[in-house]
Write a structure and sequence with these properties.
Number of strands of chain A: 10
CATH topology of chain A: Rossmann fold
Number of strands of chain B: 10
Distance between the termini of chain B: 66 Å
Largest sheet of chain B: 6 strands, mixed
CATH class of chain A: Alpha Beta
Strand content of chain A: 15-25%
Strand order of the largest sheet of chain A: 6-7-8-3-9-10
Order of helices and strands of chain A: EEEHEEHEHHHHEHEHEEHHHH
Number of domains of chain A: 1
Strand order of the largest sheet of chain B: 6-7-8-3-9-10
Helix content of chain A: 25-40%
Number of helices of chain A: 12
Oligomer: heterodimer
Radius of gyration of chain B: 21 Å
CATH superfamily of chain A: P-loop containing nucleotide triphosphate hydrolases
Amino acid sequence: MSEEPFIQLNDLHHNYLRGTPLEVIALRGVSMEIYKGESVGIIGRTGAGKSTVVQHFNGLIRPREPGRVIVDGQDLNDPDVDIRRIRQKIGLVFQYPEQQLFERLVGDDIAFGPKKLGMEPADRRERVKWAMDMVGLDFEEFKDRFTFSLSGGEMRKAALAGVMALQPEVLILDESTSGVDPRSRRELLERLSTLHKDYGLMLVFVSPNMDDMAGLVDRIYVMDEGRVVMSGTTRAVFSQPEKLREHGLGVPQVTEVIHELIARGIKVEQIPVTVEEGAEEVWKILNS
Amino acid sequence: MSVTSVEQIVKIQGLHFHYNPQSEHPIHALKGIDLDISPGDYLVIVGHNGSGKSTLAKNINVLLRPTEGNVWVKGMNTRELANTLAIRSAVGMVFQIPDNQIVATIVEQDVAFGPENLGVPEDELRERVDWALGVVDMLGYRHRQPHRLSAGQKQRVAIAGVMAMKPEVLILDEATSMLDPEGRRDVLAAVRKLNEEGVTVIAITHFMHEAAEGNRVIVMEGGKIVMAGMPREVFSHVKELRTMQLDVPQTTELAYRMNQRDPTFPPDLLLVNEVADEIQRRVNGRSGT
């Protein structure tokens, strides 16, 4: 890609509790780029530094020299940068989205961001409706519901709608689908995939599980011990199961089956990352 | 009241449970559950949020009591208040979010908390804590502060804390859902080891390939058990599971898809090696003819 990346992270270092005996090194020189129109995965075992990295994306953590973060041409090292504008462009949904809800009513919670942006009540209402529609929460049914009365899946949708209401250009999901049951997860991922394809929303998925993002991301960064240890297309990364295992990760079961066949000397054309691709590949093997 | 056979460590008969039974809109969470669990079973319960699986688990260790029907643990009825402590020390439970289960400020003190309260003498206490931390591979963190650990590490501490009480039944309520693959592997290996030592395991999970760990699986939907059997039997019902929008393990789904294209391909394969074996057999057979 020749154009400038939309987000550029350069040589990020970060230590928690710096200067204390409990100091923990979280990042040891991380560089990443996210280009317009991309969907990118960041995977790594717990403690790899994934969440610390994504908090740099929207200035929740400011880069420490010599590290640099450039978002849409804005330098986050600059103390005078308009951080609110950055945070509007880059939406971040955390692991426990229910902790992101704080208003009593669902509609108010989702309207909070647009209100802070100074939108008029009528426009705000439209924006909330749009955001709820995007995540699959019925406006009439849910706007006056108490946030605490929602199910886990609904809370996640409401939190996501609150972030979407700012119409961000990038949406970061930091393990936002772990602990969600398969039905809600699939529905959520389908919606995000649609937003990505139809509206060009850039997506950054953070997860320790390969299966979560196999069919959804174009590229993957693998992190371990505060560094990027592998990167490339999803297929290229999944083609190296031994290396992934060294970093405490697995490949989807269907990819594992194909690797097992390769180990047994069976010729395979392409490493599948989804079950659909796997079935296609096995069919080819059996009929070649 | 019927007498339970000692054969079953947990026996559930006609269990109904309502949340807020006195209110105008009681929630009927369990609608007639019958279930027998034998000592040494590894039972996996799958189902969506709201299907009643956690409610069922909480009825086993007396966090909840039946609205209707009965639950016996080791022959003790959960309805009788006098049995509560004995049942809870026999049934340990680990929950989804580790932060909610950690009480102490040092890892080994947290693990010691349960057995210490049971009055376990000091020497044995040390032994148990070492053993439990070893099982979950957290010995190296024994002097650390739990709140500084990652979610996965905290969960392993929580599991160690329950294991240190040496329960006969271990209930895992989506206990692995916040762990990374490595953490999950370690925890599952530990649970398997405990099961081999005779601990009865009841695991609630969303991860279908984890369900393959058990010797029995039940699928819950709308407060009822809708499917039951060995993992292989249950997962071979790909269509029905799909209708309920539950996942099946990728291996089984792959076998199912192959079976759709070629009916001679067995649809009920569960393990990676089984699928690879079947494909290899076919490749070899073809080159042989």
